[in-house]
């Protein structure tokens, strides 16, 4: 019995030796260890439940915290006072009236509401606007509207296994992609190009709620993938966004939009 205890202690010592507590999250998980996100410590797989008690743990590099550049961290004030109202405006038949209260002088340049899946009464909607005061171009996507659309979305995303390749950026759920591409190709893409030609130094703000959040996520990835703008000039904030794509999409999105 004593020999077993000694053997276990020896194994634990050897495992601990490869888990450098002063290393990075990437080197930690690459060594088969666990990273305590809140306290920035590298511990063994067996010790993680005790040493990382009550905090998030990373067991693969995709779960490692992203080191954001100065000035690019999440801003609660920006999300609450700008992006949340802009995402709500997408639900309005007249988003301009909402913009008048959110961003003085902002102007809607493009708006569409249509049957993106060819099924009545389901439709999708989004708008593009510009704010010279904020020096920003705004893309806002509306979420699901009505029981019929919500039900279709739930069925296709929860049980459907249909995905679309995003040309080097992983795969996204086909329901979200069809909805996005309808709005994108119906005029939003060209409206964005036109505004960028006039104001190449402006930021692009992309937002949406629920289904709109998934579309906003895809839009931000496509914008960077197609080199329409640069990462440092793009801001994405979504609300209640459902899981949009596969693992490769998550990796591509993080490397493009959060770089």
UniProtKB/TrEMBL annotation:
| Keywords from the named record | Signal
Q: Which residues form the signal peptide?
A: 1-17
Tell me which Gene3D superfamilies the record gives.
alpha/beta hydrolase
Entry keyword annotation includes Transmembrane: no
Which processes are annotated in GO (biological process)? Answer: lipid metabolic process
Which Pfam families has this protein been placed in? Answer: Lipase_3
Q: Where is the Fungal lipase-type domain?
A: 139-256
Q: Output the PROSITE patterns linked to this UniProt entry.
A: PROKAR_LIPOPROTEIN (PS51257)
InterPro entries, per the entry: AB_hydrolase_fold (IPR029058), Fungal_lipase-type (IPR002921)
What the entry lists under PANTHER family is as follows:
PROTEIN CBG11750-RELATED
* Name under which the protein is recorded: Lipase_3 domain-containing protein
Please report the organism this UniProt entry assigns to the protein.
Answer: Toxocara canis
Phylogenetic placement of the source organism:
Eukaryota, Metazoa, Ecdysozoa, Nematoda, Chromadorea
